[in-house]
Specification:
By secondary structure, this protein is an alpha+beta fold. The protein folds into two domains: about 25-55 and about 85-235, Immunoglobulin-like (Sandwich); about 245-335, Sandwich (Immunoglobulin-like), CATH 2.60.40. It contains eight helices and twelve strands. β2 (about 130-135) and β3 (about 145-150) form a beta hairpin. The model has no long low-confidence stretch (mean pLDDT about 90). It binds heme C and copper (II) ion. Copper (II) ion (CU) binds near residues 170, 209 and 213. One of its GO terms (biological process) is ATP synthesis coupled electron transport.
């Protein structure tokens, strides 16, 4: 075989397989529910493969044994008719058994995927065009806080999401952990999952929800229960007050330049609700719903011209002097 033919063949085989692992793959399950879904998929795949192979073999045999058409096609052959009747009956029973069997497998799988656990951690996720509001709600308001585009959860413990939408229909999907569930205006859907291993899993909106739908991603960060507890305690606290003059200037500008109309920063006078909560923005890994990594350069680029990065998104371009920009970025970065 020519070398280039071999190379092309190898590439063609490897290419589709490269998508089968990593932090966003239903074929590399890291949660109880995604494991169950994959298990169900494999059973369906195996049974369908057997049925398909049997049908193709029967077809080939039929084609090879084809006789010349009879001289008198309307003649009745009693024995042949009886034999075909039995074969058709047997195939009918087999088909029914396969369909019922697969229905049972699917039902059994759904009992795990849609199980509800009373002890689950409850989070509220609200879809917005085009970002995710994440509310950790506890019985006491002092234990409740809000964040965005990043969901931290403990490993080995069930987490139940209450899914809502502020505008259009979105769909919550973290292939590594569980199946999809829609966020529908005026309706509360629930989705429960348990992450088996610590790690960062990527999720994204799986329902076309407007022009920036493709830039509506998020991260699920699964961490040990101890680490999660510490993170939660920290996240509960109000924002850091800046100690240095540049930070203080940034805090004042954040209000003076209108940012506070849309963004909340707990413990300060900024209480806007239209955009993501920025109380601990400095400790988040990405900005603009997974569009950019979070660092001073990308923060600057975003604030300077959010419409260039995510055209049509609901944050307007705010006219800022470069020294004002530097102060605001400095302020936001220390909001760990
Ligand atoms: C009219 C409301 C509005 C104003 C005013 C506004 N923002 Fe935003 N901001 C938003 C929205 C909406 C988003 C989410 C955009 C998206 O990802 O689709 C956002 C996103 C952000 C983000 C990224 C947050 C994240 O977690 O992804 C930062 C940082 C930010 N804004 C800073 C600012 C600063 C600084 C100002 C003032 C100069 C400002 N915003 C003014 C609405 C606003
Ligand atoms: Cu969406």
């Amino acid at each position: 075989m020519q070398v280039w033919v071999r190379r092309v063949l190898v590439l063609c085989t490897i290419w589709p397989l490269t998508a089968c692992a990593g932090r966003q793959s239903a074929l590399d399950p890291q949660g109880l529910q995604s494991g169950q879904i994959l298990h169900t998929l494999f059973i369906f795949l195996a049974v369908s493969a057997v049925v398909w192979t049997a049908v193709v073999i029967a077809l080939c045999i039929g084609m090879m044994r084809r006789k010349r058409s009879a001289d008198r096609p309307l003649d009745l052959h009693q024995a042949f008719e009886e034999r075909s009747g039995r074969v058709i009956l047997a195939l009918g029973i087999a088909t029914t058994a396969v369909v019922l069997g697969l229905s049972f497998v699917s039902y059994a799988g759904q009992r795990t995927v849609f199980a509800k656990d009373e002890k689950a951690h409850i989070l509220k996720i609200i879809g917005h065009q085009w970002w995710w509001e994440v509310r950790y709600e506890a019985d006491s308001p002092h234990q409740s806080f809000v964040t965005a585009n990043e969901i931290r959860i403990p490993t080995g413990e069930p987490v139940r999401l209450e899914l809502e939408s502020a505008d259009v229909i979105h769909s919550f999907w973290v292939p590594s952990l569980t199946g999809k569930m829609d966020l529908i205006p005026g309706q509360k859907n629930e989705l429960q999952f348990t992450a088996k291993n610590a790690g960062i899993y990527r999720g994204q909106c799986a329902e076309f929800c407007g022009i920036q739908h493709a830039h509506m991603a998020f991260a699920v960060i699964a961490m040990s229960p101890d680490e999660f507890g510490r993170w939660r305690d920290h996240e509960n606290q109000s924002a850091n007050s800046p100690a240095d003059p540049l930070g203080k200037q940034g805090e004042a500008l954040f209000r003076a330049r209108g940012c506070a109309l849309c963004h909340n920063i707990s413990g300060t006078l900024a209480g806007g609700q239209l955009g993501p909560d920025l109380t601990h923005i400095g400790s988040r890994t990405t900005i603009a719903a997974g569009t950019l990594p979070n660092n001073s350069a990308t923060l600057g680029a975003w604030i300077a011209d959010p419409q260039h990065i995510k055209p049509g998104n609901l944050m307007p371009r705010m006219p800022l002097q470069s020294d004002e920009m530097i102060a605001i970025i400095h302020y936001l970065e220390q909001l760990k």
